[in-house]
Amino acid sequence: MTPQPLPSALPLTDRTRHRRLREQGSLARADLDAILDAGFLCHLGVVIDGRPFVVPTVYGRDERWLYVHGSVASRSLAGSTPVCVTATHVDGLVLARSVFEHGVNYRSAVIHGEARTVTDPDEKLEGLRRLTEHATPGQWTYARHPSRKELAATTLLAVSLEEASVKIRTGGPDDGDGPDAELGLWAGTLPLTQVWGAPVPDPLLPPDIPVPAHVARREGTGQG
Amino acid sequence: MTPQPLPSALPLTDRTRHRRLREQGSLARADLDAILDAGFLCHLGVVIDGRPFVVPTVYGRDERWLYVHGSVASRSLAGSTPVCVTATHVDGLVLARSVFEHGVNYRSAVIHGEARTVTDPDEKLEGLRRLTEHATPGQWTYARHPSRKELAATTLLAVSLEEASVKIRTGGPDDGDGPDAELGLWAGTLPLTQVWGAPVPDPLLPPDIPVPAHVARREGTGQG
Questions:
Q1: How many CA atoms, within 13 angstroms, populate the side-chain half-sphere of residue B24?
Q2: Name one Pfam family in it (chains A, B) (predicted).
Q3: Would you place residue B103 in the very low, low, confident or very high pLDDT band (cuts 50, 70, 90)?
Q4: Which CATH class is domain B22-192?
Q5: What is the pLDDT of residues B154-173, one digit of tens each?
Q6: Residues 25-44 of A with CB under 8 A from B
Q7: What tens digit of pLDDT does each residue of A107-133 get?
Q8: What are phi and psi of B38, to 5 degrees?
Q9: Using a CB-CB distance cutoff of 8 angstroms, which residues of chain B are in contact with residue A102?
Q10: Which long-range contacts (CB under 8 A, 24 or more apart) does B30-37 make?
Q11: Cα–Cα–Cα angle for B128, B129, B131, rounded to 5 degrees
């Protein structure tokens, strides 16, 4: 199963065209990939009875598809359903001289597509593998794989990565060369990072089972 | 402007009733408040032309209303619009013996309501104050307040906190007392925390302006 690669530039569509802060938009697929690979939790939006529902869920991806654990939204996802999947990383606060210029440094990917319920057993297993490895590299080969029954009880959705909107904001505030610079106020950014902690063993775990290397090595490293 | 307090229990509605993993649901308003107060970024979902749009944005709150910076969704938010606002904190990965039992420790609040565009200047200023203080306590009294022109150029939305769905997952994996415990695999959680870094001054800042105490004291503390 070698997915067809997508063009390296994201298409500009009516949904992905940035209406404001254009300078923050990126049409590079490499930026989309990097944002998706930096995290494992997204917010999945669906429409139910004309109203929006937004639920957090985990994801994985290949070159062509975003795979989303779909149980959280299962009541709404029969067949092909319009979805919006957004992955956001917060890198810090932008503290300006004026309240008006305050902001957030962030990276976000907003993916528009139709949710396809994955039914093919091979694709489902491969999608789950990608999802598992995406959150914890090395875990798929370590843990017990899904049984046929478990696989049937799992809802996996695929969303095409074709249409996406990427926004990135970096750097300091924008009011350093305006009249507000005369106010004598401090301005800058306050970075925010996600860090993996020490593994916490299940209380039921026998003491002689060591933390596997692929889990242990994450402690103290950044995520996002 | 003293908002009317809401009941301490969240109402069970067709939208907030948990369809799965009921044990993770909470109807305590205190849990909702705690989740909202632990962060400053939410995902705002709206429906445009029948399709979902999910965008990240900052928020603040009082006892009654969630205030959301609305410019990101301004093209869609004329008048009273159904919205779903979701705030999620990821506390770690749940690594089980089987792939099927893997999960995420998290806290999420899903708020359902209609977005009301705040037009009253007093409420708008107070909403922006709450939003600013929510992200950076102490910043509203430190930074320059919005001018009349800036206030007019800011879109602030209010969403009632009346109807919300709260979910919290904590603890280790659930397969420690089943047959998979015999596999001899490590299982537990890998905590993930958000930490504030050292303030980065704007390059245009004169060197004699100190980092204010309310910003400096966050360095090294957790967020979320």
A1: 19
A2: Pyridox_ox_2
A3: very high
A4: mainly beta
A5: 999 999 999 999 999 999 99
A6: 40-41, 43-44
A7: 999 999 999 999 999 999 999 999 999
A8: -80, -10
A9: 132, 135-136, 139, 143
A10: B31/B107, B31/B166, B31/B168, B32/B109, B32/B161, B32/B164, B32/B166, B33/B61, B34/B107, B35/B87, B35/B89, B35/B107, B35/B108, B35/B109, B35/B166, B35/B168, B36/B61, B36/B66, B36/B87, B36/B109, B37/B61, B37/B134
A11: 60
The verdict on a CB contact (< 8 Å) between A95 and B200 is: no
B213 touches A at CB < 8 Å: no
The pair of structure tokens assigned to A99 is 């309240």
Q: Which of A31, A37, A36 lies closest to A8, judged by CA?
A: A31
> Does residue A216 belong to the interface with chain B, where contact is any CB pair within 8 Å?
no
Q: How many secondary structure helices (H) and strands (E) does chain B include?
A: 5, 11
**Inter-chain residue contact B190 with A197, CB threshold 8 Å:** yes
The 3-state secondary structure of A72-86 reads HHHHHCCCCEEEEEE
- Cβ separation B104–A187 shorter than 8 A: no
Q: Is the dihedral of CA B131, B135, B137, B142 positive or negative?
A: negative
Domain ranges of chain B: 22-192, 195-224
